[in-house]
Amino acid sequence: MNVWERLAAIDRRWIYLACGIAVLMPFIIPVSLPVYTTPEVQGVYDAVKNLPDSSVVMLTYDYYPSTLAETEPMSRAALHHLFSKDCKIVTISNIPLGGPTIAERVTRELAAQYGKEYGTDYVNLGYKANYVAVMKGLGSSIRSIFPADNSGTPLGQLPLMQEVDSYEDIDFIFIVADNATADYWVSIVNAQYGVPMCCGATAVMAPKMYAFMGSGQLKGLLGGMKGAAEYEQLIGHKDRAVRGMDAQSLIHLLIIGLVVLGNLGYFMGRREKGIGR
Amino acid sequence: MPAHLRNTIRIGLTALLLTVVSVSSAFAQAEDGPAFLTNRINALILVIVFSVAVMYFTQQARKGKTLFLRKIPGLDAVEEAVGRATEMGRPILYIPGILDLDEMDTIAGVSILGRVTKIVAEYETPLIVPARYPTVLAACQEICEQAYAEAGKPDTFNKDSVRYLAGEQFAFTAAVNGIMMRERPATNIYLGGFFAESLLLAETGNAAGSIQIAGTSQPEQLPFFIAACDYTLMGEELYAASAYLSHEPLMTGGLKGQDLIKVILITVIIVGVILSLLDHWNVIHFFDIYSGWFQEA
Amino acid sequence: MTPFSPIELWLMAFVTLAIFSFLYKDNPVYRLVESIFAGLSAGYYFGLVWDTVLMQQVVDPIKTDSSNLYLIIPALLGILLFSRLTQKWSYLSRVPLAFVIGSTSGIFITSRLQGLVLPQIRTTFMPQNVPGGSTDPWMIVVLSTIVVVGVIATLVYFYFSHEHKGVIGWTARLGIWFIMISFGAHFGYTVMGRVSLLIGRVQFLVEDWIGSFTG
Amino acid sequence: MRKTVPVVTAFVTGVIVTISFFFNEHTTLIGKVQGGILQWVTIIFGLALALGMVSITRVNFNKIKRKQEGWFYSVLVIVSVFVMAIPSALPVSWSPMFGRNEGSLYYWLWTRISEPMMATMFAMLAFYIASAAYRAFRARSTESTLLLLTAVIVMLSRIPMGEWFLRLFNESLPDWVNIYIMNGFNLSVQRGIIVGAALGAASMSLRIILGIERTYMGKG
Fold it and tell me: What CATH number was assigned to the domain covering residues A39-238?
């Protein structure tokens, strides 16, 4: 067994260990490098900034607890930005597993910081099944799909919801999603009802969203933790996303190194076996 | 009931309902205001052209006309992989995605399962099909049973080979990973809607030394399938594979219809670019009107 | 800082590490938490359905206004879906299934064509806006060319009515190169996505859990 | 009968929803009917979410009954299902432990056990990606070389350290990566895929409405 074959046969658990160390290191020795702002994130910031004060904004919690690390900073930053402009916020979740619970927890915490009141300044609609039907149905009437909010209070008893009953009453939609729902917000709600929107997407979803940026259907895009960090920086509330960027640097370099090493081994192994050139 | 009669009834019913609904909706105004949205005429035209194209080719295919479809490279791999599993005496794992039965990916995955099961039944290779939704479970069970019957081996079908696993995405993945490590399938086939679990599945399969064939229409997962699997069906190739394998006239017809629309769309783009350049060079100014057709007024 | 009590933090750290133990190998502790997780997930769905669907969408509206009695019909249709679980009566579930699938298909046809195809095609033949607002004509020309060629080549790659030969062959070849570049970008982004989630857990373990030892 | 009724149901609902797209949904009858249909869909589909619970209980109950390998885990599954489900269905007025709000057992179990578990499941993917990068991600052909090179460049442009490194070569290099790779190559391919997939989905939907595609019903 030569060195390349031995390298190729390395147990994957050693790689896992290297990965674990790379992610832990920056917590012990932090190096704070600046994050540059990309035009896509600037687009989100400008779109929200240019909303008239007290606009009604729908904020979606279309994510599972599994992607909290990427999406929760986006929701928090959005809430900071929107509450500081006195916007009225209607939150909704198209994710059954955990979505409504996260919406309650995060929105209430931030609302308390800004002294906002449930029912007049913000409402959590919660979850209803089949997001395609929900998104389309909200165009007819929010109340026919959501007779009550997440905790069961009839919408008629909430002052904010007396003025809001379809997309016509909503000025802007801020999507935060970790799955295909963003696609449907664009293709159903933006295309048919013309509500302007921007999107905070996990890094996995972000490349697809560039097509919607290009077509002008999205006003801005937050792509993953980097996007969240840029947004946190723009609104001046540096938080977990900005702090996470250090660890990103190191582990990315590790992965790039692994790609190079793996391929080196692959080519050297082939050459020694006399395959290829 | 003979097929043509059924068709006639269906078409007649369609026409009747279309008329009744459109007429009634046009006149039955619940409130004042415009009824028909004229700004959506471009969409209406597209829907009509699209429907006619799809229906025309479907009709052609049904009449028994052979419509050409190009070969999908990764598909031959399926039979090869089943053969290998048989030689090794190890099972085949087939996952029709993690979406529910109302999603197109699952439908394609389930329909390819029918063809794969037939090969599996002929070779008498053990099969494992984990389903994430009860609806998918039921559909897979029925399709497998049918395939075993078609292969002439209805008795060899083991009902437990189609299994219901926990409903949550990662609970499901973990359970499938457990199966991979415990039962060591020789071949893993992932055809359907896959999300974050794609890499978890493909990596664990790699560790277990299985041959892997994957396909999904979710572009965000394809890089991993390409990286970790032996063969990958990208995007629409999944649907095309389903049509190609089953030689099903309906699927083939649908694909041919879509292909026609693609040709039209490519033409639209090229004409648009030319008009845009002519506009820029001050030859003719038709571009704004042209591009306006594709926009909701 | 954290809203959790020490016992809760220990519990959360335990389940976190128990799941991570799968990285080493499948083990009884992992299977234990996996089973609990599967059970809790199913239970979560039940609570959600009971409260937000059955109570909020059916029972409460009927209680407050008897003209809503028609809501019994969709509820019964929904219950019919449970016939899936039986052998003999499973065909009954087809009607509610057809209702759901039929109407979502109706949304699909129009929204896919009007909401995706039309705007995406239109903005392909329009001159592209350079992100960041640059008006350098060369940048616009280069970017617009890339977009037009890329869209056409990708569409041709997914064209199934012709073998990949001749003009179609090399356009499809170009298409696969474009696709691979895009997938490379996708891979790069996704690495960041997954790493973020690991960082999130490490933030919990280091800052919240271990951090609580030192006060 | 077993097939005709569902086919007609899918047809009628599908046609109404499709046609109503072209009409004002607030002022026309068809718009109102469509609104009603969508409301029903959310209810029917919502109830279906509970199917999983019935199913999982039954499967695990059978395992226990047959004393299959690992039946102990099945006991745990069933216990967890009921510990989570039953208190959530009891009225909050009886005890703050019931219901779904903050302070309930349901909320506690979810945020303290399920959330960290689910988040960790996803976090494992970082390790798997690292492993795939080393073991599976090979420059086997022109195509995979392109994929590989782009991945490395994009990864560098997305991290502060890499951005700093790229700026050593040219001050605008990270911007060019964003403009040409993300908004050029990537955008065009995503667009092609989106359009293609949209046509596929629309064609499948059309066939479902017209009763040609019946896979969703199962065979027989």
Answer: 3.40.50
